[in-house]
Design a protein that fits this description.
It contains 18 helices and 13 strands. It is an alpha/beta fold. The strands form three sheets. The protein has a five-stranded mixed sheet with strand order 1-2-4-3-5. Strands 7-6-11-12-13 form a five-stranded parallel sheet, sandwiched between helices. The two termini are about 30 Å apart. It binds NADPH dihydro-nicotinamide-adenine-dinucleotide phosphate.
């Protein structure tokens, strides 16, 4: 066994021993470590300085109580978190997730992946993530507001435009960012750049709402263009029906694909005529209803309970845009059997380690979330630039920059994979090219 392999195994064992009850975090670290050996061979200074031990330990980890009152006057308490994982490249940057499943393991995996994703954008941002086990489903607007205000009352002590800049994620969109920003402003000052994903009425960036969904499609557009192919005329599966899914569907349709599915945590829709996007937006963004409403209003659609990925259905492109670990190895095999040749992750870590390995070893163009869904955070960083300039760029300008950034990310993944003799292994490409930037910055900053 080579020295490098020994070193990686030593780190892996240590992390598994330190945090045995954090399966998602361990999964993200294992995936990362499984790809970086060839880079470590070329860069002995990483092992000499034991940089992997420093890298895998969050710089700061905050957990706090979030008390709030429901509409009946009852006292409620949730857990709030912020993981400030790595600031080598800039202020911590990463979303807030409000979902009952939120815990330290999930947020640490998200923050860890965010480090490399942010590095891939080429923009000056470090990695962080946060959120709460608060469930926004079924809550009134007033309850959402009171929760956000209480959450920010504590979080405001630890964030700032040059320190840590949160944004949205599952369960946190423009409405929540608006309430969070209002409270921050009241407590501190009008620091527009303290949060991104702000509504357009106050310092938000055009294209931020669309950025993650558009970005994942741009990534695939550049991948296909490299092979003199395009998206037009292809059949696509999309999971999820939130922010990322909706705008992935919008861009896919604009580029001529037929998107036949979307889903939520209860079930999924198949509409062979193509998803009716204006109806989907009306149900999810305006009425905030469940997906079952779609089939009541669309005769061509069918609703099924369970996971979209359990269905035998033919398609060429798959865009998992809901949540982590939605595709297991069985589902991966099913997709490949049914003709899927490109899997592009709008969600973070939607494929299990086994599923991801299956895609890579079977020649599928597998585009990992840390590269393919980086468009959201990239436009967040552009929002910070606009806020600092006190300007608002046009939709077309931000969209063109987003497309350009996704092209560069694709190219970096591709070139790095080729460079290490593993053409089309975008997991390796994304991990090594993201890590290279972070590692160099960390080494130059010394042991901090
Ligand atoms: P939203 O809250 O807008 O939508 C989430 C969607 O995923 C909903 O359809 C939701 O269904 C579904 N979902 C959530 N949890 C589960 C679950 N446990 N099982 C099945 N379905 C589930 O979130 P986003 O669209 O913003 O985020 C989706 C994914 O994209 C996440 O992985 C997120 O981390 C990632 N991402 C988001 C970015 C952004 O800019 N927003 C940036 C980069 C990545 P239901 O309504 O039933 O809960």
């Amino acid at each position: 066994m080579s020295n490098t392999t020994n070193y990686i195994q030593k780190i892996q064992t240590k992390i598994h021993e330190n945090d045995p009850h954090q399966p998602e975090f361990l999964q993200a670290v294992d995936e990362f470590l499984s790809t970086i050996a060839p880079f470590l061979e070329d860069h002995p200074e990483i092992e000499q300085n034991d940089l992997l031990s420093v890298l895998t330990e969050p710089e700061r980890l905050l957990q706090f109580r979030v008390p709030w009152q429901d509409d009946q006057g009852n006292w409620q308490v949730n857990r709030g978190y912020r993981i400030q994982f790595n600031s080598a490249l800039g202020p911590y940057k990463g979303g807030l997730r409000f979902h009952p499943s939120v815990n330290l393991s999930i947020l640490k995996f998200l923050a860890f992946e965010q480090i490399f994703k942010n590095a891939l954008t080429g923009l000056p941002i470090g990695g962080g993530k946060g959120g709460s086990d608060f469930d926004p489903k079924g809550k009134s607007d007033q309850e959402i507001m009171r929760f956000c205000q209480s959450f920010m009352l504590e979080l405001s002590k630890y964030i700032g435009p040059n320190l840590d800049v949160p944004a949205g994620d599952i369960g946190v969109g423009g409405r929540e960012i608006g309430y969070l920003f209002g409270m921050y402003k009241r407590l501190r000052s009008y620091d527009a750049g303290v949060l991104t994903g702000k509504p357009l009425e106050f310092w938000g960036s055009l294209t931020r709402t669309e950025a993650t969904g558009y970005g994942v499609v741009y990534f695939v557009k550049h991948l296909l263009a490299d092979q003199q192919k395009n998206i037009e005329g292809r059949k696509a599966l999309v999971s999820g029906s939130g922010n990322v899914a909706i705008y992935a569907i919008e861009k896919l349709q604009e580029l001529g694909a037929t998107v036949i599915s979307c889903s939520d945590s209860n079930g999924y829709i198949i509409d062979e005529n193509g998803i009716d996007l204006s109806l989907l937006k009306e149900i999810k963004e305006v009425r905030r209803e469940r997906l079952t409403a779609y089939v009541n209003e669309k005769a061509s659609a069918q609703y099924f309970e369970g996971s979209l990925w359990d269905k035998e259905i033919s398609a060429e492109l798959a865009f998992p845009c809901a949540t982590q670990n939605e595709i297991d190895e069985e589902a991966a095999k099913r997709l490949v059997r049914n003709g899927v040749s490109v899997v592009a992750e709008g969600a973070n870590m939607p494929a299990s380690l086994e599923a991801a390995n299956y895609f890579v070893s079977n020649g599928i163009y597998y585009c990992p979330g840390k590269a393919a869904n980086a468009g959201g955070v990239a436009v967040s960083a552009l929002e910070m630039s606009q806020n600092a300039q006190r300007l608002q760029w046009t939709f077309a300008e931000v969209d063109a920059r987003l497309d350009g950034i996704m092209k560069e990310i694709y190219q970096a993944c591709y070139d790095t994979a080729v460079n290490y003799g593993q053409k089309n292994n975008f997991v390796l490409g994304a991990n090594i090219s993201g890590f290279e930037k972070v590692a160099k910055a960390m080494l130059r900053q010394g042991l901090v």
